[in-house]
Design goal:
This protein has 337 residues and is an alpha/beta fold. It is built from twelve helices and eight strands. Strands 1-7-8-6-5-2-3-4 form an eight-stranded mixed β-sheet. The protein is globular and about 60 Å long.
Length: 337
């Protein structure tokens, strides 16, 4: 199938502005400093050279230690330090555990998804974190635009994690929408779903019924979800972790009714570039092809190629400036035969 995606660098630019890019510069300054300190103290002999994941992390740290984000010098006011804190706190927590991760005595899951790490993880993914908020905001704006067309009432969110995107969408829910809506929130982790339900279960507008259930987007079966039954399927910064992205895209589209829409909001890595949050996420298991790409995130061209491989036509919007990009992809379901 010929590539049917096209790029529109319009609406997402509103969410990736100069303050955001200034904040990225500050985050990169911290990331570079932490990468340098880890490498200075690292005993490379303690890292298993046959462990592809950990050797990738060492290589990434080396690249990050000399990285300079191609942007204007930061002009953030001191008052913005509070907005940057959720990212910096998690960066520093990850840095303190990197030696134990690299020598194999600690897993990324134990570092990030338990105890203090889990508390900081929850804070990172909320929209009060100005370096993550654009992904949630872009997704919510896109979903709201679709809802206002009257095109359906059943929503499925996959890879919801701590529920940051869920909370943002509920907070921005159009108060003039009539009718009843079903919103199913899913993740592979039962503990994250319990946490998300506890944090956001009472925040839904009166005309939105929230449901929570487990769903693994890497599995090929529908796991109890009825095919062709949802009007909108949403994923925010989740699908870059898919084991087989074209297969996952096809599976998610199969859950859409004719006329339904798949909406993705994702961090992008400019081709050959780095994204500062990889310092954190590199501690977690990675898709096998991430090693050859040099990043767990895709460049825009990679997303276009995977949509094409899945046989899905999508409109892709990417912000016009900055190496750390936000993408929103909107893919309609197939029409009735």
């Amino acid at each position: 199938m010929a590539d049917q995606t096209h790029v529109n660098a319009g609406s997402v630019d509103a969410f990736v502005d100069e303050p955001y890019l200034d904040t990225c510069v500050r985050a990169w300054e911290v990331t570079t400093e932490l990468a340098q300190s880890i490498l200075e103290a690292l005993d490379l002999g303690a890292v298993d050279p046959t462990d592809e994941h950990r050797m990738h992390c060492v290589d990434w740290l080396r690249r990050a230690a000399t990285y300079r984000m191609p942007s204007q010098p930061s002009r953030l006011a001191d008052s913005s330090a509070e907005a940057l804190a959720p990212t910096v706190d998690l960066l520093r927590h990850a840095a303190s555990a990197y030696p134990r991760f690299l020598d194999g005595t600690a897993s990324g899951q134990s570092i990030l998804l338990s105890g203090e790490g889990m508390r900081l993880w929850n804070g990172y993914f909320q929209s009060r974190n100005c370096l993550y908020e654009p992904l949630n905001a872009a997704a919510a704006a896109t979903v709201n635009r679709i809802l206002r067309t009257g095109n359906g009432t059943r929503i499925l969110e996959v890879g919801a994690g701590t529920g940051g995107a869920t909370a943002h969408l509920l907070a921005e829910w159009p108060n003039d929408l009539s009718g009843a809506f079903d919103y199913t929130v899913t993740d592979t982790s039962a503990s994250l779903l319990v946490s998300t339900r506890r944090a956001h279960g009472e925040r839904a507008p009166s005309n939105v019924r929230l449901r929570f259930r487990r769903f693994d987007f890497d599995l090929v079966d529908d796991q109890g979800l009825v095919p062709r039954s949802f009007d909108l399927v949403l994923a925010v910064n989740a699908l870059h972790n898919a084991v087989d992205l074209p297969s996952t895209l096809r599976n998610l589209r199969s859950l859409l009714r004719p006329g339904g829409t798949l909406v993705l909001s994702e961090s992008l890595c400019a081709a050959g570039d780095l994204v500062h949050q990889e310092f954190i996420f590199n501690l977690l298991p990675m898709p096998a092809d991430a090693y050859s790409r040099g990043s767990r995130f895709y460049a825009e061209a990679g997303w276009r190629a995977h949509f094409d491989a899945a046989g899905i036509a999508a409109e892709i919007q990417v912000n016009a400036v900055g190496p750390e990009l936000v993408m929103v992809a909107v893919a309609p379901a197939e029409a009735e035969p």
